[in-house]
User: Fold this.
Amino acid sequence: MKGEGFTLAEVVAALLVLEVGLLGAAALVVTARQTQAAAMVTERSVTLVAEVADSLAEAGFGGAGERATGWGVVRWVDEGGEPLATIRILSEDSARGRRLEAWTAVPRIVDPEAEG
Assistant:
């Protein structure tokens, strides 16, 4: 009389299929978290670069400088140009080594005493 149920081979095969599926799901979760963390850093970089670009445009600043943050540094450099200065802004995440570059044009400061 044959017993009802599954054979040992069937149970082992089902467990292997389940294990592969669970490992795939776990890898997907890890990858999603890493991608989310990278996206958050990029979002902070973009926001800060936009703030720096707006500040430079409002102040009419050419020159160069940098601004330290809790996660890295933002640097800007005058790439030349008249009457607008082309400013290259670089955001660097010190922990992950990610970089974001942006360019903007801002008016140069005109010193009336230097012209007269």
